[in-house]
Amino acid sequence: MQVELTERDFRNFSELIYEKCGINLHQGKRELLKARLSKVLRKSSFDSVTEYYHYLMKDTSGDAFIPLLDVISTNLTAFLREPRHFDFLGDTVVPELFGGSGQNGSGDIQVWCAGCSSGEEAYSIAMTLLEALPQPRHRDLHILATDISTRMLRTADRGVYDASRVEKVPYPLRRQYFQKGINRWSGYYRVKPPVRERIRFQRLNFIEPFSFPRPFDVVFCRNVMIYFDKTTQEDLVNRFYQVLKSPGYLFIGHSESLTGVRHRFRYVRPSVYRK
């Protein structure tokens, strides 16, 4: 199906997407938007992007917008991606916050993986903490993993991955935390229950109000804010500050920076901040 995306269509969808989820689709993203809309229209009965747009505008439930968000959101991820963060989490954050003399040496541990995509980052956080924590079996470790894409959350919650996605995980971790598939599951790995049971996957839209029962010790929000403008970034970073314990840590992507964003975090190292 050949999709035509006029300048007016592009402007309408860009404004709608920004309003609904804060993603900033500038002119350089026009071809990307066209390709993503093509995916939606191929699976629907709409004859044009204009007709699809009018359908979205008439929907009052918000449900019609979810399939569009599923294809608009970018989901590039991998196990232990940007490994220096996980080294810092295990070698520095765990002894400081969760060691015997740390401020949370005996209590529960709350981590938020914001923008978890298909789950690899959340599972990487869990494995890192389970390896680094003293007596991990006796600790209440809770990881909330959120994403705006329901499609990605289904994959994440399932915890089943093609072997090619798991092969870069160091063998000791792979042996400890993954089950190798056999028979019809040959060529796949599944994350073992002791890891999966520590994580709760949930849909969340960053521009909506946060409502969490307890504050977090650590927040990972990596390679997400690059899709937002400075205004949305500033609002989001300061809301992260509010939901973190003190002391607490914020990790952002190595390609991201808080330069030009007003915030109260203390810079620790590139892409790591402390409350």
Structure described in brief:
This protein is α/β, with parallel strands linked by helices and 275 residues long. It is 41% helix and 18% strand.
Domains, number: 2
Q: How many angstroms does the end-to-end distance come to?
A: 50 Å
Estimate the global geometry from the Cα principal axes: globular
Number of strands: 10
CATH top level of the largest domain is Alpha Beta
CATH topology of the largest domain: Rossmann fold
Class per helix and strand makeup:
alpha/beta
Strand order of the largest sheet: 6-2-1-7-8-10-9
Largest sheet: 7 strands, mixed
Structure, explained:
The protein has eleven helices and ten strands. The chain has helices at 7-21, 30-42, 49-58, 66-72, 83-98, 120-132, 150-158, 163-166, 171-177, 193-196, 230-243, and strands spanning 109-114, 141-147, 160-162, 178-180, 188-191, 199-203, 216-221, 244-252, 266-269, 272-274. A seven-stranded mixed sheet has the order 6-2-1-7-8-10-9. Strands 3-5-4 form a three-stranded antiparallel sheet. Helix 11 links the parallel strand 7 (216-221) and strand 8. The longest helix is centred in the N-terminal third of the chain and has 16 residues, at 83-98. The protein is globular, with a radius of gyration of 20 Å. The model has no long low-confidence stretch (mean pLDDT 91).
Give the helices and strands, then pairings.
Elements: H1 7-21, H2 30-42, H3 49-58, H4 66-72, H5 83-98, E1 109-114, H6 120-132, E2 141-147, H7 150-158, E3 160-162, H8 163-166, H9 171-177, E4 178-180, E5 188-191, H10 193-196, E6 199-203, E7 216-221, H11 230-243, E8 244-252, E9 266-269, E10 272-274
Parallel strand pairs: 1-2, 1-7, 2-6, 7-8
Antiparallel strand pairs: 3-5, 4-5, 8-10, 9-10
Helix pairs in contact: 2-4, 5-6
